[in-house]
Each structure stands twice: as C-alpha cells, then as structure tokens.
C-alpha cells in the first residue's frame, strides 16, 4: 500500500486526515494477529491453483497485476478493454461494467473468468497517486469483489464480451460510505471459472496467466451523511465544425459554365449524412453479480462510440454536425462555439429532424454561445508562417476571416471567439487575432505548461501590441480525456471512450476535493475536439450532470470570472515557440503554392481572354469568392490531408475550367492539290460571356506551311471560325499543330492536330506553257537527231 503523504505539493483533503491518523494508531494493535491470519491462510490455500480468485472477495490485490505484467514486453498477452461502465455511482444506482477480452495471440485461450474488485475505503491523496494507479505502478489492495463472470474459450484472434453488475443492495456496494474516486481493477483469468475451478483443457495453447486493467469507481455524495463542500464550476465547450467537408465538383463545373443558381458557398460540400446505429446490447446482469459472457463472432466487440448521440431511437440519417446540434439541444449547459459556415449548413440539415420531433413536443433549439473564425481558419499557423502576401496571393485576404466577417455569415450579433489551430497561441498569434477583431481566444491545448498545486480557472488577460486579449485555457488532463486521449500510454484502463470517461469523472472529483474550496471560485474549461463523436459528448455531458460535486458553467460566466493571470505574469505564461510541425508547414506551403496558381488562372482569364471584364464582373467576382471559400477550407485548422487535397484540387478545377471552356473543335484532314489552300478552324466558347483569343498554327514540314496567327472573338455560348492559308512547295504530308493563346501570347488549353496532304497538280497557264515548251524542245531534239549530218571522222 502506498504512502498517504501528499505528492508534488498537492494538498490532502481535510475530510480524510482524522480517519488516516486513527488507522495509523491502530496499526500496532492489529498487525500481529493480522500476520498470523495471513500465515494460516497461506498454509490452507497452498494447494489451490495459483490463478484462483476467491468468490467472497477476501484477497485480490494490485500485486497480481504487477506479477501478470512482469513478463517480457514483447510477449503478446490477452487484453481487456472497457466498453461500458457506470460513470457516477449513487446510493441507488449500483455499478455495472461491460468489457471485451481480446486474444491477439496465435493460440487459443481456455474458458476463464472475469473479476471486478475495488477498494471502498481508499482515498487518493494526489494526482500522482491516481496516475500511478492508472498505470499499474503501485499496489493498492482491492479486496471488495463487485462480481464475477464466466468467460468462454477464445480462439486465436477472437474476442469475448462480459458484463458484471452489482446492485446497490449488495454488501460490496454498501461498503462504499465515502464519496470520491476509488481504485477499481478488472482481472481476466483464463483457465479458472468464476467459482475458482480449473477449466484448462488440452486444446488451449496461449499463455494462460491472469491479466488486469486499472480503472476508477466514483461515488457521489448522494445518500452519504458527509459535510457538503461547494461544487466546482466546469464549462464544457463543443466546437461545431464540419470536418467532413469536401469540394463539390458538380457545383464547381456549374459555376464555371454559369449553369443554374450556383453560389460561391455551394462549391464546398457538407459532410455526408450517416445512418445512426446503436451499440451492441448486452443481456441484463443478475443480482448475484454473475453474468455469463458470450464470444464475439465478428472478432471485435462494439465500442460505446457506436451509440447514437441522441436520445431518439429513429434511424434517420444525420451528419456529424447535425448530430452535435441535437446533443447541444439535449444538454442546455453545453457551450457551442460554431464555425459560421458549418452552422448554416447543419441548421438546414437538422430542420427536418426537428420538425419531425415537434409533434411529440420534445424539440429544443441548440444555443450557440459564440462563433469562431470562418471555416476555422488556422490563425496560429498564419502567424507562425508570417507570410501574409502568400495567403493574399492564394485568395485569402485578411478581410476573409475577421470577427466582422464571421458575424456577417450568421446574420446576427454576438460573441466572437478565435479557436486555436495546430500551432500555439504565441504573442504574435494573439496580436494577429486581436487585429482581426478577436478579443477572446480559446486555448484548447498547450498554453500554460506550469504545474500548480491545485487546479484553477483558466482565464488569462495578455497584453499585445494590438491590445489586451483574454485567453481561455482548458484544464489539460480533463481536456485530453474529453478529446479521446488517455492520460498516458501506460494507462491500461483508458484505451476506450468508456474507460476515459470513468477517468474523467474520477479526476474531476479529485480536483473538487483539493483545498481550499472557497478561496477560489474555480471554473475549469474543458474543450471537446472538432472530431469528437456526438455520442461521446453526450455521455460526458450526462456524466457531468450526474456529478454532484460539479456545477455546469456558461461561457459568459467563464469570460466574466476572476482573472487568474494578467500583466507581466501572463506574458511569461504565453508560449514562445509556436510548435508548428515541419510536416504541417510543408503542407500549408504546398497548398499556398497550388492555390496561388489556380487563383492566377482565374485572374488571367478575366484580364486576357474575356472581351470585357467589367460586363462579366458579377460572374468573375463569384468565381473569386468561390476560390476563396475553397482556399479557406483548405487552410482550416481541422482539415485533414484528404480534405486539403480535395479543396486544392477543387480550386485547380475552378481555374482550369475557365480555360477548358474555350476549345478548338476537331478539324477534318486537308488535301492540297495546288500551291495554296485554306484550312478552316472552329473555336467553341461554353462560357456565358464572349472571349477573344489568338489561334496559332505550326506545321512539322518546311515544304508545307500555314499562316502563323489569327485572332478571333467568340460569342457567349457560341462558335467562331478562322481560316489559315496553306502554301505547298512539293507533294507530301504534314501535320498542323493548332493551339490557343491569350492576347499576350501565352498558350492555354489543349493542342488540336490537323493532317495536311499535298498532291501537286497543274492548275494554271504557266504550267501549260512549260509543258508545251518541253514538248516542242523534245520534238526539235528528235528532228535534229534524224537530220544531223555525220562528221567525216565519225
């Protein structure tokens, strides 16, 4: 058992000191008989199998876990993952946990058992104390068994699921008479059933040593006669961002051809709706705390993330954003900071579902606490790269992502808050945000690296060159758990959402127990990730509402709360390094280069190919706005590589589509039977405005050539023809390569090849004169040959 002294300066909850002194004084009086009992028990049970676990809960300790994990790290062992558990235990709820046992080994596991035990008397004294337990680095006795379950044999690569439930009426639950987090262990013992009987047979080939994971059971103060302490405020913030958006190629093509009622916003397609599914149901647990497990034929048990984020059981399709809006409507305390571009789409998509529920009178409107920068544009990366001109050339001006622009997209007034991107909020990033009109920013990660004795309100007021900025920084441990991150890679009970939620509840309870209670009106900020599933947000929000030691706070109350740091102290807290990864920088720079090129294509087409840009101003402005929309999404803080590629390709499609709308129609082969001829070329324009282009023709022969250039104006949605002169010096074949150029002589579009065949024929008087003269000379030569006098010497 570990020492109960504070670690790292953490204070001990006052309510536990008397009890601990009483135990310390009582140790000498009970130590000798206790040792005698242990020796007798050891002699009595020496003949039992080493892996047997008592079904009366008399002696199960964390040391078993240390023994189980003492083997080599490269040995593959069975694993346990928590699918479901009761996050908050009261005097009436009891406790239930469902786990999946996986066999990643190459051998089969025999029938076994699952045992869930905890220590109802233990009180964690520090954060380090809790972390050591979560990682299995400390031995804390867990002798109170909540229940056992039989686990069937598991084939190599297979899984089995088991549920253990203890009702509030059981002795194991009645033993829990103090509120707060308690250490809980789940142990899987292959080869031993729930009664302690050996079950191994000759078919089992895998390692049959027990394995355990460490978690927490958290008791609320409900039903316990204990001194009440002020609840701690906690503000849950959910960013509403459509992370599944992609470029809409159909809308892009329609905009280029000016077909249909296409807007600049429509070139970005919202995430597709997905059918809601429900988690795998488990059979009801019995009061005797023993429930048989069943093998999972599919090879993996369903995790709780497959559950719907809504209380409705209908199977209507939902997008991730509309599902989150439904969760926000369900939990009024959930604070939503919305991307204005995602908000409008999600609101439209959820209208049908809401109207369908209105008949039952259950529909509630989600409250939007604030809006963030449009498309969640990465302000921190913008400041870290410090290449404002490159962004402008890519089509993203500073006016595109101001606080004013964010409100304009929602057609309302309210609070604007800048959401943190992939880099840190450095002084330069905070200055940039302030210049853009954001006086409040959310620091969702890596702001205050200082470790304090107790948790505190994460409000900082930082002075910048542009003015003061209020930084709302989340509590790191709780924030990471809410985002689906375990507290460490060794925390074996936090590999699933259910396991992390159990740790979230336990950790928050410990934070509330930290003294002083009333010296600080603490308000902890917890931010979900933009990709956190609605189901997980729903479960955490529900757990917080069930936690009597927590009080849900609003974003406004957090903004107006007492400042934790300001002035020079706050400046020293601000990160000095942006920590933007080299990979992310490279991805942004590549996107900027590609977006600059596609933006340049639109500008070039408007300036050098359209006959009159002014007359096409509305169309060109819409094209440029659409490009900006694509660029903003490509440089969003939440854009994954696939999304970035889609938006960059969409912008390229937009720019290239301008030139692709002006084409050379295929020309029939030309046969030349004289020295000169004509070659007609037809130019087609699919755009709604006339264009002016130069047509170039070059042949691959010196004897068969065409005229070089011809300029033509092509009407809107029409065709025009130009004619090239052909001159032939001899019979033969050649290919004329016809291309398009803008008025400045820069080539665009594809090349059209036309075959020219020359069959030279006599087609004028000069030719006949030459032929006649040749005939006369030939006849004269023949006459001379027959009438010539021979030389005497010949």
UniProtKB/TrEMBL annotation:
Keyword field: Membrane, Oxidoreductase, Peroxidase, Transmembrane, Transmembrane helix
Q: Where is this region: Disordered?
A: 62-81, 272-317
* InterPro entries for this protein: DUF6049
Biased amino acid composition, Polar residues:
72-81
Recorded GO terms, molecular function? peroxidase activity
Oxidoreductase keyword on record: yes
> Where are the bilayer-spanning segments?
24-48, 766-783
Q: What is this protein called?
A: Dyp-type peroxidase family protein
